Amino acid sequence: MKKILISTVAVSALLLTVACKTDFDTDVNSVQVTKGDADFSKYVALGNSLTAGYRDGTLYSDGQNESYPSMVAKQMQLAGGGAFKQPMIPNNTGGFTDLFAASGNTSFYGKLTLKVVNGSLSPVASAPGANLDNVSKDGPFNNMGVPGARVAHLLAPGYGNPAGLASNPKTANPYFVRFASSPATSVLADFIAQKPTFFSLWIGNNDALLYAMAGGDPSIEPLTPSEQFGQYYNMLINEISTKTSAKGVIANIPNVTSIPALTTIPYNPITAAVLGNGNVAVGNANIDALNAQLYGPLVQILNLVGGGDRIKLLSKTEPNPVLLKDESLENLGAKIQFAAANSGNPGLVALAPYLAATYGQARQAKAGDLMPLTTRAAIGTAAPVSPGVPATLASRGIAYPFEDRFVLTITEVAEVNSTIAAYNQVIKAAADAKGYAFVDANAKMTELGAASGIQYDGIRYTATFVTGGTFSLDGVHLTGRGYAVIANEFIKAINSKYHSTLPQVTVNQYSGVTFP
Fold this sequence. Notes:
The protein is an alpha/beta fold. The chain has helices spanning 8-13, 49-52, 61-65, 68-76, 97-102, 151-155, 174-177, 187-193, 205-213, 226-243, 260-263, 272-275, 280-305, 333-341, 346-359, 410-434, 441-449, 480-498, and strands spanning 43-47, 112-117, 120-125, 143-145, 198-202, 247-251, 323-325, 362-364, 437-439, 454-456, 459-461. It has a five-stranded parallel beta sheet with strand order 4-1-5-6-9, with helices on both faces. The chain has a two-stranded antiparallel ribbon with strand order 2-3.
């Protein structure tokens, strides 16, 4: 599979001024900064990775220094706000060496950086910077963002217990283990113990995102039901409102199916060049072989059994879709086996059981199916096939249907979107009921994802992977500039609700994607 190519034209486009809406509403240089009805002396931020400053696939010190709460806190300090302490990672690489090894080198790696690989720029993970550390003695901390946390996790006692990292299933989170005040505490309990005068809350993204990034496979990451989400979220808000006197601001959840991590890889990335590793002639020969050995017979069989719209022959001139398993489809396995066994073709007769088991719910991807960035590396890799099956049929996504975890199907996309809409209704209702300021982060991300994007002081930002300037190299989390966009949304909401005059941050002064 080709690496993502980022052209010099696209890179230079980042520096161009384009005519589109500016996001600075007023010139605040002459405005006196006041706190209004709020008290910013003890600001504490609750949330997940988006609060912690996570970016480029990990948490590292530069990212933490450009977290949106740290930006907001600096503006609050102009209006009586206090110090803002974060549980800093002790290096600028991130990752945990011990947990990286324990995961089989699949998670907790160091930050992604752009490197030239085979002539193209591509994100490459660094080695982790150090073992998991513990900084609880330096707490409490104002930034209580916990990467990976769902809403329920903020309520869970023992979420910072080191022993829970080895349990099955895990009951603890290493990022909270780092700064929890005790093994038995919860994120919420440590938050309440600080007696904040003001708080921000941005939580719930992982309740949908993790499921989407797992291709909608609930055996890997479940989608939190909206009813359960509402119970946990309201419990969280009620605890905050009854056990503290803090005023605050809460944000809703962006539509995770529109982020670069799920929209960058096209549904039809298979070309002759890809199948020939750059050699089109070899790729064309492979297409001929695949059509003769698999696609042609499958098309004939599917036409006979009522699934003729599922698969078409591969094209030599047009991009081809990946092959996937869609569990929402009728399983035609028994019909396929019968047709193959009675085809009179010795090859199909021999493969009849395999064809039935493998292609009963197979179809080619179509517009609207989404592939996580991580699926790119899996295209064409070896799949688990039955003994006696030709190796040419063991190519994932090409001859062997991608399993559920590799593709978020159209049906699953609709499921995620409707669930997030229900989550956001809960969040908005909670903000209204408790009188907290509200940030429509979903609307801002939708604006960012539009073709025109948004503009700050002559620089345009979009949600385009790498070159859009706002999303980091993992395609999920933001760059410093992206977090600055969000920080301004929080500041606007705070000023509107509490009659303060906190100035917005200057987006362009923060960092974007670093090019080699």
